[in-house]
User: Fold this.
Amino acid sequence: MKRNLEARLNTEIEGCTNWGQSSANSSQMSVQECESLYNSSKRRKRENRWRSSQSYIGNTTVIPPATIGQTLPEGPLMLDNVHYCLHCNAKKFKYESLHFCCCNGEVVIATNEFPDELCRLFISQEEDAKHFQQYSRMYNNLFAFSSIRGITDSTTYKGIYVFKMHGQIYHCVPDLLPNDNSPKYLQLYFYDGQHEVQNRVKCFPEVREDIIRILMKVTEKNPYARFFRSLKEIEIDENTQIVLNQTTVLDQRVYNAPLTDEVAVVWPDGVSSNEISTPHILVYWKSAQTHRIYHYYGCYNPLQYPLLFPHGECGWTQNFKKQIAVGNRQTHQVPDPVNSCTVHTVHDFLDEEALRAVRHRTRADKYVSPREYYAYKLQIRPHNMLLRAGRCFQQFVVDMYVKIQNTRLDYLRNNQDTIRFDLYQGILDSVTNGETDASKIGHVVILPPSFIGCPRDLRRRYLNAMALVQRYGKPDLFITMTCNANWPEIKAELQPGEKAQDRPDGVARIFRAKLLALKKQIMKKKVFGEVAAMINVVEFQKRGLPHAHFLIILKFDFKIRGPADYDKFVSAEILSLHNPLLRKVILTHMMHGPCGQLNPRCPFDENGWEKVSM
Assistant:
């Protein structure tokens, strides 16, 4: 190595005529002096290379035209006009694929009309309807047949209403008789049935008796409510058992409203429950066990959300077939490609489902996944009252997301052999991570990197980001994009009296469309110059609105090298009246309000110091 270095240095020195020393004495130089001369030569070459890429006019450096910042926009970036699906009539925003709503006509779900009185409570601006809309989640839980068990949080502090869930979530059905003479959930329908209204009013102090009577009339069409109210006419003792059917409708493509005798029956004494031919849930009068409603049961939705499914409509179930002509061909029993290890991001997940339309028919192509099912249900269509439920809709969306995640986890749990094929074994992971305790080695379930948010997925993303920095250098720009609830596209989807917090589906879809539009501006239109690499992450604020962070690495010829160059892209000043729109945006979102005596509630004084209460 030393000889090679001296040879390269001698080569560099031979081409120089005046180094301050004669060439005859160059062979007698020390290695340290040779290295110093070699480094200075390399530095001069880099400087000359950089100067050659610039154009000089006097003392002013002219940056290549592609990197010159454009004029400030006069208005916000508006999305193109929406279009509608030809198969299911769903509204589609920019950059949404054909398979986003109904898989290009393959998913068909029958829907039922909401009762007129319930529609009035959801969309009207009358006094009782406004009260119902504010407490819609509370009224739904008051008439629910099952309960949600888990860590939930629905508090609001200095922000918009956000419903959050943590950890494992369970849906459970209580026993037929209460333990403390305080009925709840399905018990309210038949226990002390003559005083049903009074019993419901006692559950929550915020509810109103007149609205409870309206909802009791609405639930008369619900088959579950009719069945449990019919129990008032029989005597319930320790031998009473009821059987709830797990899946009430055989084909949701043509019919989705079950009958009363299809949802539940009273099981006669002396007959074993093993004689029931259909999957069922057996509920006793009193027992120490929990009657759990699993996420893959068809009754999962109607038992928990009677106001969103007023006719007891069945939810997603396994083996729910798509509307496709399979013919006489047999579907191959192969793993679902979407649930396998081939997807790594949310976009890969959506693209993989879109690609299944052109692949050979498999079992996964024949049946509707839970994501496809609820993507169909949550589309913007005329008279889709599911989207008008306010805070109850927020709970439903979060709950269904948990169901989708549980379904993916079930697949991973039951297909560990397939997953281990392209993953490290548990002991290799433990050795790599430095684990020394043998009792902690060997996990029961391995989550592949395709499961978004798992440790392997986060580690892979981190290593990819570090590899880009190692290859292309440190980032040049850090850009933050925030979601604005006052965007015209969001306001256009709100009904009178609605707020952006009531439509998390529309906020997320419009934000995604604008996020992709910003990427297109950066990568294709090159508003900052040619990009060597770009990394972005989407986060959700505590107040529910999403925002994105970008790290952009520009190519060498488009680097920003001085304050004058940064002024081409960054404006840290209050604009003049010649651009009133951007001036208003800056004053609204980027300027703090008055402090001191002008605003006693401001947490800072006129000197910028935080107030401290003694």
In short: The mean pLDDT is 75. The longest strand covers residues 164-173.
